[in-house]
Write a structure and sequence with these properties.
Layout lengths: L20 E3 L2 E2 L12 H17 L1 E7 L7 H11 L26 E4 L8 H13 L7 E5 L1 H7 L10 E4 L2 E4 L10 E7 L7 E8 L5 E7 L12 E7 L16 H4 E7 L19 E8 L5 E7 L8 E7 L8 H4 L6 E2 L23 E4 L5 E7 L13 E7 L4 E5 L6 E4 L4 E10 L10 E8 L6 E6 L5 E2 L5 E3 L4 E9 L10 E11 L6 E10 L5 E5 L11 E10 L5 E5 L5 H7 L6 E3 L3 E4 L4 E9 L15 E3 L12
Parallel strand pairs: 1-3, 2-3, 3-4, 21-29
Antiparallel strand pairs: 5-8, 6-7, 9-10, 10-11, 11-12, 13-14, 14-15, 15-16, 17-18, 18-19, 20-22, 22-27, 23-26, 23-28, 24-25, 24-27, 28-29, 30-31, 31-35, 32-34, 32-36, 33-35
Length: 636
C-alpha cells in the first residue's frame, strides 16, 4: 500500500513480521536455457542464484520434474541451489561448512514435483509447502527416546554415558532403531503447523500408548509474539505413523494427529477483550497429565476473570476413541476455577514476554482426580501476603458422592446374640454442575464385617439386594435410599461382648477416587447367667442312707453356655461342697444349656454309718463357663 497514489490504510494486508521469505523454482530442464543440463553456464547460474538467495535472506525450495534421461541431473542442480554447490552431480545431502558465501547452506530443500497422485507424493508435497511457508515463530516439536533400548542393546553403553556426541563443534544425536542400541528412535517431529507462536508444551502418555500435548498458542490473536494466548490440546498416535528407526526427518504431522489442535480454554477473541485490559484473554502455562482411565487433566493460569486478575483453572477431558476435531471427538468439557481470589499466581509474568513463566505443579491422585500446587501472593484465599509469594495446594476431585444416615437414624446400635438390626441410609450424587453432565454410576460395598457376623444391603424402595457389582446410576443431585441389615453371631457362636465396626463405601465406576465412607458401630451385648433352685432343701435320713435333692439349673444369660460344678472327688471340691469326712456326693460337674433353658438334676448325698446325728449343710456351687466369674451379684 505504500506506493505513490496509494497510501497505506487499515484495510491493507498486514505482513507477518516473522515471515520466512521463500522462492519456489520449478523445472525439469537445465537452469540456463533448458537442456542439456550440467553445463558450465548451468553451474554458474546456480551458483549466482544460490549466493543471491543467501544475501537476500530468501530460502529456495526447488521442485524438480522427471527430465530427459531421468531426474538426477536436475535434482543435483536443485540441491546445489537450495543447500550449496559441491562441484559434482549428486542427489545426496550437501556438506556446507559455511566458511564462504558459496559453501553456505541456503536452508532450503528440493522436492520432486509429482507426476501423478500415487505414492502420496502430492500429500507429502503439500505438507512440505506448509512446513516451509510458516514463519520463524516457535512451533511445538517432539522426539521419542528409548533409554532402556540404549542401555540393554548397546554393548558399549556404561551408566552415565551421554545420549549424544559432539565433535569439532558439531552436535549429533544418537538416532536409530532401539533394537540396535540407539537412544532417539523418532527424531524431531513437528506437532503444530501455524504461523503463530506456540509455547510451553506439556506432554503425557496414556495406557493405550497415545500421546497428549497441551500448550499455549497465539493463533486466535495474530502472529505477533506479544498477543493473548489460549491453551490448546492435541492427541497423537505415533505408533504406526512411520518406522521408529530414528526417523531422521521426523514423522508426518498429519499422520500422527488423532484429535486436531483444539482450544480447551475459553477463546475470547480480539473483539472480546476489554479495551482497558488488553491481556484479559490470556490462558497460559498449561500442565497436563493422564490417569489410569486414560482421561486427560489440564491446569493453567487464566486471566479471563477480571475480578480475580489471575485464576488457576482445571479441566478434565474424558477418554475417547473418536478422532478428528476436538469439538466432536471429545465429550463436552467445562473449565473449573480452582482459585477465586484476586492475586498474582505462579510468579511474575508479562504478556509481552510469554516465554517467561511457570506452569502449576500437577500430579495424579489414586483415581482420576489431581493434585495442584502453585505460588500465590495471597495466603491461598482473600488474605494478602504483603506481595510475597507462598505455596498453595488443592486436590481436585472430578465428582462427589455422599453416603449419609437417613433422618432419625443413629450410627450406634446394641443387639443381643442372634438378633438383627437395620441402619437406614441414603446415597447422593452431590457433584455440582448440570445434572446430566455430572451423572455417574456407583457401587456400594461393605467392609469390616467380623467373623460370624453378617451384613447385607437392600434398596428401600423394593427391598431387593444390593451386591458389590450392582450399578446404581444417579444424575447430579439425585439420591437413593437403602438400608443395611446387620445380624450378630448366633447364641452358639457368641462368646463375649463384641463391637462390629462396619463400613459402607460408595464408589464411582468411572473414577475410583470419587468415593465416600460411612461407619456403623453395632455392639453385641452378651450376658452369661445361672440360677439354681430346688424343690426341697431339707431331707431327713439315717446313717448309711442317701439323701436325694432335685436341683434345677437355669441359663439366665442370652447365649448358649456351659455351667460347671465342683468335682466332689477332688480335695478342693470336697472343701467347696463342705462335705464332712466320709460323705459322698453324686452330681454332674458340667451342664450345657441354651438361653432360658432349664434342666433338673438329682443331687445324691451319701451319709456314712459312722456319722453322728445332727444337721448338716451342703453347698451346691455352679458358674458360667463363658464368663467364669464366681459372683452371685453378677448372676454368673
Amino acid at each position: 500500500g505504500n506506493v505513490p497514489g496509494n497510501p497505506p490504510t487499515q484495510a491493507d494486508h498486514r505482513w507477518n513480521p516473522n515471515a520466512t521469505k521463500i522462492v519456489i523454482p520449478v523445472s525439469d530442464e537445465g537452469p540456463k536455457d533448458g537442456d542439456p543440463s550440467q553445463q558450465a553456464d548451468d553451474k554458474a547460474a546456480i551458483q549466482e542464484a544460490h549466493d543471491n538467495c543467501i544475501l537476500a535472506g530468501v530460502v529456495p525450495v526447488g521442485l524438480y520434474g522427471q527430465g530427459y534421461g531421468g531426474a538426477g541431473n536436475i535434482q543435483s542442480h536443485f540441491m546445489d541451489l537450495v543447500q550449496c554447490p559441491n562441484g559434482v552431480v549428486s542427489t545426496q545431502t550437501r556438506n556446507c561448512p559455511g566458511n564462504t558465501l558459496a559453501n553456505t547452506d541456503a536452508g532450503g530443500q528440493a522436492y520432486e514435483f509429482p507426476s501423478g497422485s500415487g505414492n502420496n507424493q502430492m500429500a507429502l508435497l503439500v505438507e512440505a509447502m506448509v512446513y516451509i511457508s510458516t514463519n520463524n515463530s516457535r512451533e511445538i516439536y517432539m522426539s521419542v527416546l528409548d533409554p532402556y533400548a540404549k542401555m540393554n542393546n548397546d554393548p558399549s553403553f556404561t551408566p552415565g554415558s551421554p545420549g549424544h556426541s559432539a565433535q569439532g563443534g558439531v552436535y549429533a544425536e544418537d538416532t536409530g532403531a532401539g533394537s540396535d542400541g540407539h537412544l532417539v528412535v523418532v527424531n524431531d517431529t513437528r506437532v503444530t503447523i501455524d504461523d503463530a507462536y506456540s509455547f510451553h508444551p506439556s506432554i503425557g502418555v496414556d495406557r493405550q500408548g497415545n500421546t497428549h500435548i497441551a500448550w499455549m498458542d497465539g493463533r486466535d490473536y495474530g502472529f505477533e509474539k506479544d498477543v493473548n494466548y489460549e491453551v490448546y490440546y492435541t492427541k497423537l498416535r505415533l505408533q504406526g505413523a512411520g518406522e521408529w528407526d530414528g526417523a531422521e526427518e521426523g514423522l508426518s504431522t498429519y499422520a500422527i494427529k488423532k484429535i486436531n489442535d483444539t482450544p480447551v480454554s475459553n477463546v475470547e477473541g480480539k473483539n472480546g477483550l476489554p479495551p482497558a485490559s488488553p491481556y484479559a484473554g490470556n490462558s497460559v502455562f498449561p500442565s497436563l497429565l493422564t490417569d489410569d482411565q486414560n482421561n486427560v487433566h489440564i491446569a493453567w493460569v487464566d486471566s479471563g476473570n477480571l475480578s480475580a486478575n489471575e485464576e488457576v483453572l482445571y479441566v478434565r477431558l474424558n477418554q475417547t476413541d473418536l478422532t478428528g476435531d476436538g469439538e466432536t471427538a471429545l465429550d463436552p468439557w467445562e473449565a473449573v476455577a480452582v482459585t477465586s481470589w484476586n492475586s498474582n499466581k505462579l510468579g511474575p509474568n508479562s504478556g509481552r514476554q510469554p516465554a517467561i513463566g511457570m506452569p502449576p505443579a500437577f500430579s495424579n491422585d489414586l483415581g482420576s482426580g489431581a493434585h495442584i500446587a502453585w505460588s500465590d501472593t495471597n495466603k491461598c484465599g482473600d488474605d494478602g501476603n504483603n506481595n510475597r509469594f507462598t505455596i498453595c495446594y488443592s486436590h481436585v476431585l472430578t465428582g462427589q458422592v455422599d453416603v449419609e444416615f437417613d433422618e432419625g437414624e443413629t450410627f450406634y446400635h446394641v443387639i443381643e446374640p442372634g438378633q438383627q438390626t437395620i441402619y437406614n441410609m441414603t446415597m447422593n450424587n452431590s457433584t455440582p454442575g448440570p445434572k446430566d453432565l455430572v451423572a455417574d454410576t456407583y457401587g456400594l460395598n461393605i467392609s469390616g464385617v467380623p467373623m460370624n457376623w453378617t451384613a447385607n444391603l437392600y434398596f428401600a424402595s423394593n427391598h431387593s439386594s444390593i451386591f458389590p457389582d450392582t450399578p446404581i446410576f444417579l444424575e447430579g443431585g439425585e439420591n437413593v435410599r437403602f438400608y443395611m441389615r446387620v445380624q450378630a453371631p448366633s447364641i452358639y457362636q457368641a462368646n463375649g461382648d463384641e463391637l462390629a465396626e462396619i463400613r459402607v463405601t460408595a464408589q464411582s465406576y468411572k473414577d475410583p477416587a470419587i468415593q465416600n465412607d460411612l461407619i456403623t458401630l453395632t455392639l453385641m451385648d452378651v450376658v452369661h447367667g445361672i440360677n439354681l433352685d430346688t424343690s426341697h432343701s431339707m431331707a431327713d435320713i439315717e446313717q448309711g442312707d442317701t439323701a436325694i435333692f432335685s436341683i434345677t439349673i437355669t441359663n439366665t444369660g442370652n447365649v448358649h453356655d456351659a455351667f460347671v460344678f465342683w468335682d466332689p472327688n477332688s480335695l478342693e471340691g470336697q472343701q467347696e461342697w463342705l462335705l464332712p469326712f466320709g460323705w459322698q456326693v453324686n452330681f454332674p460337674i458340667r451342664v450345657e444349656l441354651d438361653p432360658g433353658q432349664s434342666v433338673t438334676k438329682n443331687l445324691e448325698v451319701f451319709v456314712p454309718t459312722s456319722e453322728d446325728p445332727g444337721a448338716f449343710v451342703i453347698y451346691v456351687k455352679g458358674w458360667s463357663e463363658g464368663e467364669p466369674i464366681k459372683s452371685v451379684e453378677k448372676g454368673t
